[in-house]
Every structure is written in C-alpha cells, then in structure tokens.
Write a structure and sequence with these properties.
2 copies of one chain form a homodimer. Chain A is built from 8 helices and 7 strands. Chain A is α/β, with parallel strands linked by helices. In chain A, α3 links the parallel β2 and β3. The model of chain A has no long low-confidence stretch (mean pLDDT about 95). Chains A and B meet through α1 and α5 of A and α1 and α5 of B.
Chain lengths: ~220, ~220
C-alpha cells in the first residue's frame, strides 16, 4: 500500500480526534469539571499516585476514569475507597482518544464541580500524541526507571503541564542521577513544575494537591 | 472517515509487515544469526539486562540493534564495551517493525554466527503486535512495576518465549506479590520460562545466557 494513504489516514484520525477533544473540553469546562490527563509508563504508580492526591484534595470532589487495555483491578480498588470511578477498556488500543472520553463523560453523572482524573493506558509514547479534551496533562515518572527518560521519550515530557517524580523512597537503593534527569526535563519543557513524591509513604502529595486546586480555580 | 477504511489500512500494514518479517527471519537463519526481539516498558532495564546477558555468553558472538524513539545513549554505552551495536531511531513511532529491521540487517556485517539482540522501543503494548523477523521474543519486566502487569498488558505476556523478571535486588523494599504475578503469567502462557535477575548485581544471568545458548543451537 502507499505511504501517502497511510499518512492521510493518520492525519484524518488526528483531525477527527482533536475536533471531538475540543467538544469534551468545552463540556467539562461548562460543568465546572477540571480534567487531568494522567500519563505514564506501565507500573509507574499512576493509580497509587491518584489515591494519594485524592486523599489530599480536602473537599474538592474527585472523579476518575480508569483507562486499561484489559482488567478492572484499579477501578475495583478506587471504588472500594468510595471514589466515583468509571472503567474504559480498550482491548488492545495503546492509548485513550477523545471519542472514548466523549462517550464516557456522557455516562457520568457529575453531581458537583470537581476534578476528573483520566488515567491513560500505561505507555510513555502513544498517549502523548492524542488530546482527550483535558485541561492539563500530568506525567508520572519514577526514579526506578532511570534518569535518561526525558532524552529517550521527549514528547511526553515536552507536552506535560506537571511532572510527578514517584518512588523517591527507593532513592537510597538505586542510582538515579537527578541532575541529568532535570537537565533533560528543562531542555524540553522550560519551567514545568516537578513534584517529588512517594506513593508508598505519601510524601509530597500535599503540595501536588494544592497545585491542582489552584490550577482548577477552586 | 470510515472505520472500515481504518481497519483495512491496519490489516494491510500488518500483512505487509509479516511478509517482510518472514524474509528477515529466513535471512538471519541462513546467516546463523539467532534473533531475539527484546521487549519491555520504559526504564525496565532492557539495556542493562542485555549487557549482563552478553557478559555471560562465553564465546557466542553478540550483536545488538538498539531501537529508540530518539537518542543514542544506549548505543554509545554498548559500543564502549566493544559490542557491535547498530542504532535505529524511529522519531516518534512507538514500536519497531519488519521493514526497519530489514533495512538495518542489510547494513550489518555479520562476520560470524551469533545472537542478535533487537532492543525494541520501551513500550509494553505496541511492540507485541508486530513481528520483526525474530526467532524468539524476550519480555523484560521489573518487580518495581508491581505484580498486576500480566493482567493489564496480557498480549506481551502471551507472546513471550521467555520472561525476565528484573530488579529483584529491590524486593526487600517493595510490595511485590510473586504468587499473583505468576498466576497471571501461567494463565496466559502455560510453561514460559521465567528467570529472576538483578541487572544491578548480575544475579541470575548465567542461567539466562545458558538458556539462550541452547535455544540458539550453538
């Protein structure tokens, strides 16, 4: 097949997606819902991070959409804590897209204003290419994954509005070159805030939650 | 655009890819090169694992193709150890495919029989969908990423010919439910061998290297 056709198909997919993403964004804004696209590699601690942030939100109402290829392990976990959580399974697809979120939010009853965390598929590549109607993008990375990630996966870092550096409790047991990491981050994304946290100990999440509260305008 | 067109385009891409993958596989077999598709999430320790395996190969000649979206950090590292390493940058693409490998291997001088490690893009989703002409698929995962990975990313586990469980030196400091992990692996991929290793300490790699030697027929 012709490469030109491939490229056209991809361009059409992106244009359609962005169009729907704009609608989702407008709908969310109108409802007073601040939507956060939560991205990160598999096993980076996305759900644990969300749980810790939500614990620190102090009265700001949280909603969660869980994106997974398969399974509802995290949704069951979050619901057991009383958090309004909605599952999307992509059954193979490597990222969430705007049509999926458009469908999901039509089925969610937003009873009050608040924050909607949309946990994307665990993938440091593809999700960064697709807007899903979010207000901001939160990138979660971990010290256990090494300090070279900004150099190897630049798009995710470039497009992040906030970066969460997780698992800092393991710092004493690993080699993580924070200076090299931050140099890479700054080269891609000038003054993006970087919060250091531990999903395990809860360290650092009060600051993240406060930052979200201010950004959300609540 | 129509979903039917999208599906047709994807089917064509896969058919073309598989056709070229067969050629690559035949060429490698003819040259006495045992090709391993090395897959795993970002930061899982793919390059560190390769370095440790190669250290234990004892006379079996190693070649490496490094797949990265951007950067040649790992290639520089491997070459500094005297390992014949060839860089592929995809500049955005989330996985290696057969045409990329077909091009690469035409430019490699395989002076003697041996093992070609093809380090795929750090991604636990998309690489599993594309054959690149490999003889076997090696999936690297890490205890720091949690025990639920087989449940959330089943395809990669289903298609693996061998699984390397890395970073076991961090076991004392984290919660990793090995029984739950192995239950998930066994449900997807009956008797796939699972090797426990530490890229940091070198623990466990003699067994991995010996397994590869036997599989490669050398």
């Amino acid at each position: 097949m012709h490469d030109v056709l491939k490229v056209n198909v991809m361009e059409n997919i992106h244009a359609e997606n962005d169009h729907i993403a704009e609608h989702v964004n407008e709908d969310m804004t109108e409802l007073g819902i601040f939507a956060i696209n939560v991205m990160g590699a598999p096993g980076i601690g996305k759900t644990t991070t969300l749980k810790q942030i939500i614990k620190n939100l102090k009265g700001l109402k949280p909603y969660v959409i869980e994106g997974d290829i398969e399974s509802d392990i995290d949704t069951v976990d979050l619901r057991s804590l009383g958090i309004d959580t909605f599952q999307i399974n992509t059954f193979g697809a490597c990222h969430l897209d705007a049509p999926l979120i458009h469908n999901a939010v039509r089925n969610i009853q937003f009873k009050e204003k608040g924050v909607l965390f949309i946990e994307n598929i665990g993938n440091l590549v593809c999700p960064a290419e697709f807007s899903i109607g979010e207000h901001i993008r939160m990138l979660i990375v971990s010290v256990t994954d090494g300090s070279d990630k900004p150099y190897k996966y630049p798009l995710a870092f470039e497009k992040a509005d906030v970066i969460i550096l997780n698992k800092v409790d393991l710092m004493p047991f690993i080699d993580f070159d924070e200076e090299f990491f931050m140099k890479g981050v700054r080269a891609l994304n000038g003054d993006v805030p970087v919060f250091k946290v531990s999903g395990k100990t809860g360290e650092g999440f009060d600051a993240v939650a406060e930052w979200i509260r201010i950004k959300s305008g609540n």
